[in-house]
Amino acid sequence: MRVHDHYELAFGQDVVRVHRTDRSGPGGHPIYADDTGIVLAEISDRGEVRVLASGGYQNPASRVTARPVQPH
After folding, report:
1. Quick one: average pLDDT of 23-35?
2. pLDDT tens-digit map of 10-25
3. Where along the chain do its domains lie?
4. Among 13, 1, 15, residue whose Cα is nearest residue 44
């Protein structure tokens, strides 16, 4: 699987669109963010998702799936 610039993250029924940033996460993969910067996720080239806390008192979700999408 290749790295994409945009993904939709599915948190159960909720879907959030994220875009690639210029940062890398703890696993060395790109970090993606939503337009607010609140939702942060590291997504590997195999589509594995690690949601990252963007502020205090957050409990990052553990069951998230990512699917690549084309930009608007």
Report:
1. 96
2. 988 999 999 999 999 9
3. 6-68
4. 1
